[in-house]
Amino acid sequence: MNPGYEETKESEDVALVRRAKSGDTTAFEELFRRHRSQIYSLTYRMTGNSADAEDLLQDVFLTAFRKIGSFQGRSSFSTWLYRVGINRSKDFLRKKKRAAELQTPDDQHGEASLEESSRHAGAVERSSQPEAGAIAGEAQRLVQEALDRLPEGLRVPLVLHELEGLQYREVARLMRLPVGTVKSRIFRARLQLAEILEPHKEQWIK
Predict the structure, then answer these.
(1) Class of domain 1-102
(2) CB 57 within 8 A of CB 35
(3) How many CB atoms lie within 10 A of CB 32?
(4) What is the pLDDT of residues 149-190, one digit of tens each?
(5) What is the pTM of this model?
(6) Domain locations in the chain?
(7) Residues whose CB is less than 8 angstroms from the CB of residue 85 and which lie 6 or more positions away in sequence, other chains included
(8) Which of 27, 76, 94, 141 qualifies as a FRET site for 147, CA 20 to 30 Å off?
């Protein structure tokens, strides 16, 4: 990314934040438009589900709208927004995990049946696509499922660095961790991801 472009974008964000703090909802709507795609990408990678990601996207920006008065500009607005996104995603995943633990066996069976039906429908749909597209779609699904299996402390830095393109120091700033800790967690995440995906590697290596 062009450094000059980034500086211009940040200065524009500063002006929009100033207006939003004074109650200008149009300015906040512009911030939403400018940052929506990056936050959706984050929430989707964290949840692996488009509907959950869209709900979380709305939640993140509603939270940002309520708390924008507390934004003091010590970091860029995008960094602050990422932090809101990470925190809301973590809260969502914890609640989802607790809800799953409270489900009865019958509830889980019914949900599993629905999930299996959805996968079957997806398989039928993919069968009508070109082979390369079907393979790519299957690979993306497997990678996302593998991401979902990573512990939260490893998934977050891996998503931010590998999929969102943030530098180690940016991830460290977002997570409020030393850079060395971030690098270590990303390395461990890569190892675990490779281990999870090992049984499927022959599908892509011909």
Answers:
(1) mainly alpha
(2) no
(3) 18
(4) 899 899 999 999 988 888 999 999 989 999 999 999 999 999
(5) 0.69
(6) 1-102, 103-143, 150-206
(7) 39, 42, 43, 56, 60
(8) 76
Confidence tier at 113 by pLDDT (50, 70, 90)? very low
Six-digit token pair at 136? 């790519």
The CATH number of domain 150-206 is 3.40.50.620: no
**For the stretch 139-173, what's the b/e string if a residue is b when 16 or more beta carbons lie within 10 angstroms of its beta carbon?**
eeebbeebbeebeeebbbbbbbbeebebeeebbbb
